């Protein structure tokens, strides 16, 4: 997960100025945390735009296990599988931080794109970035141990969605369970490693948040030949 690029910001501005002015949209100004916006198997007939907050896209398996595929930040669309001919969703979307959301019927979104050829290019670039991030996640799951994955994701989250906190730290406002889902590990293993990182003063743990003072330091430790105390 990388910070928004200039192209991302241009796309968000185009959506806000033109798409959101079109009739027939549904606005949810305050969407509470844990709200499920759609689930796998539901009809894929709308596209969503996130004005504020944070949304997670997950794939759920047996015994309610889930893998977090991507995080949607303000200024991004999601639910773009509605633009394909699949008919139903293959993933689920859930509000991670209280959000303001606009729901766009897919025919309106298609008309918006058809009227502005540059929007298709912007959309393609955004989807290509998400595909790249998914490939990077797969590589992390296959090639890195759990501690390295936690360090790398905490660094990226701190830079992308970190909230300035005391002593110049960045607050990553995620629970340990959500971090576990993100890195593809059990909650128990994730908790044990986070406590180890806290003892080594690489992170500071709080209630539903972690404080990171230097994302570059986390990457340095993650990329060292062998991370002390790493868990396969």
Radius of gyration: 18 Å
Largest sheet: 6 strands, antiparallel
Query: Spans of 5+ residues with little confidence (pLDDT < 50)?
Result: 227-232
What is the H/E order? HEEEEEEHHHEEHHEEH
Task: Provide structural commentary.
This protein is of the alpha+beta class and 232 residues long. Helices cover 41% and strands 25% of the residues. It is built from seven helices and ten strands. Strands 1, 2, 3, 4, 5 and 6 form a six-stranded antiparallel β-sheet that branches. It has a four-stranded antiparallel β-sheet with strand order 7-8-10-9, with helices on one face. It is globular. The two termini are 23 Å apart.
Keywords:
232 residues, 7 helices, six-stranded antiparallel sheet, alpha+beta
